[in-house]
Amino acid sequence: MEKRMAAATASASASYRLLNQKKHTSKRFLDHRRLVTNFGELHRSSSSSRGFMHHCGTAPLQSFLSRFLWALQKSSLNHIQNLPGIQHRTFGLKNVIQDEEELQTANTDWMHKYKGSSKLMLLPENTDQLSQILKYCNSRCLAVVPQGGNTGLVGGSVPVFDEVIINTRRMNNIISFDEVSGVLVCEAGCILENLISFLDKQGFIMPLDLGAKGSCQIGGNVSTNAGGLRLIRYGSLHGTVLGLEVVLANGNVIDMLGTLRKDNTGYDLKHLFIGSEGSLGIITKVSILTPPKLSSVNIAFLACQDYISCQKLVFQAKRKLGEILSAFEFLDAQAMNLVLDHLDSVRNPLPSSIYNFYVLIETTGSNECNDKEKVEGFLVDAMESGLVSDGAIAQDLNQASSFWQIREGIPEALQKAGAVYKYDLSIPVEKMYDLVEEMRIRLGGKANVVGYGHLGDGNLHLNVSAPQYDDAILAEIEPFVYEWTSKQHGSISAEHGLGLMKAEKIYYSKSTATVELMASMKKMLDPNGILNPYKVIPQSLLLS
Amino acid sequence: MKIMVAIKRVVDYAVKIRIKSDKTGVETSNVKMSMNPFCEIALEEALKIKESKLASEVIAVSIGPAQCVDTLRTGLAMGADRAIHVDAPSTLFPLSIAKILKALVDVEKPGLLILGKQAIDDDCNQTGQMVAGLLNWPQGTFASKVVFDKEKNVATVDREVDGGLETLCLDLPAVITTDLRLNQPRYATLPNIMKAKSKPIKKITPEELKVEIRSDMEVLHVKEPQKRKAGVILSSVDELIDKLKNEAHVI
């Protein structure tokens, strides 16, 4: 297992292949690592300032470590070497993680699909410390991986080899909140759920909500431009994030932490860091516009017989529930069955019959009587016109959360079902489900193809669930899924990002000229290429 | 046989309770209100009995201010046939409720009265027992299983008691109060919500039932329980012993 962690490659298919391999010898894997074409060169070119270099082996690590601590607090240096007993009390030392068990967690992604072999994780407590770390790493060409809650799905938050992990979890202070404007300013390591409960007391909500809220951090959310369940109502983070503080690769702190809604002075550079997955800089502070919490929430769980009805329903819902609509999610029968089979606490709200599609609609408004009447009216119409075959409306908060549990439980159920190939695609709504059906035909009985997602935003989560990872299955899926999406002018990553999994696939959704411009920006902001290497942008462009 | 089910509108189970600033009670304005979960279980049981053809009609009753009609609509959407709303102020104590329920039983003559074992707002756990006393009917409280014998006209009720399960055989008519594990209430489905719109809700006042609402109790004030202090992590057994001896004074 550990040895397997030593090996990873820059392409998703190769990563799958590695994880599919059950038997191997450690030596072969070490060789393998050296033999991967590009990376062999990377190591050799480490003496030049343009290439990537990783500290390998103990000696550079030790010296790096002492430098880091020395830089932060000179007095602590002696403590590390001579006084192990008080290590935990000394400043800085508790922010240096070399414990193997803890590192193993940090080296492995949520899906256990990507594994790095970092020997060092640093937990800076403030921007200044993070800046010093980056400054040092940059001067030594040491690669780093910025990490938040490590809940990403594309291998973007774990090291590929032995990059230094910089986890922002200790930077978790709320800096300010303005009740009038609703602007929240906080540090990057704040866990989304903690921000949600902080705001709840003030009568506000976060403009984004996602299944991983219990562990994901706002800094990670912003740097991956996370979408989630409320996007249909409150828009993307490019709209709600008002300002950022970012540390560049060379340690320079860029203060763009404005709290203004309108500010047209020059280039709005914060947008570069929203969704660039830590490849241009590390976000340290976020200022975000939060909407007020509205008291009237209605949730309906509906059944539709075919996909065209789901489409018509979203069309109608946007018109008739427009101002109160806060979520429109769909799942197919395969997703529903997975959840019912694998999650004990979930029960089917509509057990009387089997339907092909299920839709979850949430409305949020300020007047309970009006909203309820509106929702019931809309649903009765939908039922009478045959768009909806059956449905249930939550009568209390407990029922409401049990409806959400079905939709939010799908990733967990897939995880329990075995191996899963995940694709997160933006496709025009009318074409969206065609892909799921075509995929089902391609794979036949080899795997269970599941479709669900944010129908209201045209975002399909296509998941292929199989008993175990299998090259033959992967070959059926890729590159077909990317080519199909590209043909529909869709995006091969709607909200998950590119990470390691899709870095080389960027051309399916972006033109060559666009990607080249991205690469030149990356080179400008991070000339040594230390920030989250091998991810987001194809390596070939960065090496030239 | 008719079954009557008592339903209470309470602050939703999932809402964090806040005390009114004048300490006269719990804040209920602009707070999500729902059917008391034990009442939902009571209604579900009545509906199941009706579905197994052992009852002909399920009547949902709620006593309180006008908004109780919303809760009754939920009951109708779950499947109750009709509803009765007794229009009364919101601060009612169990004895008054029991008297009103008795008066309604005298009018409707159900073979069974099912209630939740308690409401999650005042946690009284008295109404079922009191109304059984007033009616002089047998009672099976904390029911976790109910079985009917139509021929003998009896109900067998399993009760969750401290030592295990107690099984009672009740002659009908009887009062049953429901515990958490009796059943899992159904959802209000769209077709049933549509049907519920045309089901009748009869409004009646305590005066019409000739029940005088009088309170033997006065609430002096309501306050929050003391906040739990955060724990501390100690570094050694010696420190623990010291704290237990000198701070907690327990050893």
Automatic annotation (TrEMBL), chain A:
Cellular component, GO, one term: mitochondrion
Enzyme Commission code: 1.1.99.39
Annotated coiled-coil segments of the chain: none
Major enzyme class: oxidoreductase
Signal peptide location: none
SUPFAM superfamilies named in the record: FAD-binding/transporter-associated domain-like, FAD-linked oxidases, C-terminal domain
Cofactor dependence: FAD
InterPro entries to which the protein is assigned, alphabetical: FAD-bd_oxidored_4_C (IPR004113), FAD-bd_PCMH (IPR016166), FAD-bd_PCMH-like_sf (IPR036318), FAD-bd_PCMH_sub1 (IPR016167), FAD-bd_PCMH_sub2 (IPR016169), FAD-linked_Oxase-like_C (IPR016164), FAD-oxidored/transferase_4 (IPR051264), Oxid_FAD_bind_N (IPR006094)
Span of domain FAD-binding PCMH-type: 114-293
Keywords: FAD, Flavoprotein, Oxidoreductase
Sample GO molecular function, one term: FAD binding
Record-stated family: Belongs to the FAD-binding oxidoreductase/transferase type 4 family.
PANTHER family: D-2-HYDROXYGLUTARATE DEHYDROGENASE, MITOCHONDRIAL
Name the UniProt record assigns to this protein: D-2-hydroxyglutarate dehydrogenase
Organism: Lactuca saligna
From TrEMBL, chain B:
GO cellular component terms, semicolon-separated: mitochondrial matrix
GO BP annotations, alphabetical order: amino acid catabolic process; fatty acid beta-oxidation using acyl-CoA dehydrogenase
Electron transfer flavoprotein alpha/beta-subunit N-terminal domain span: 23-213
Top-level taxonomic group: Eukaryota
GO molecular function, one term: electron transfer activity
Keyword Zinc: no
Intracellular or extracellular location(s): Mitochondrion matrix
Keywords: Electron transport, Mitochondrion, Transport
Function per UniProt: The electron transfer flavoprotein serves as a specific electron acceptor for several dehydrogenases, including five acyl-CoA dehydrogenases, glutaryl-CoA and sarcosine dehydrogenase. It transfers the electrons to the main mitochondrial respiratory chain via ETF-ubiquinone oxidoreductase (ETF dehydrogenase).
Subunit structure: Heterodimer of an alpha and a beta subunit.
Protein name: Electron transfer flavoprotein subunit beta
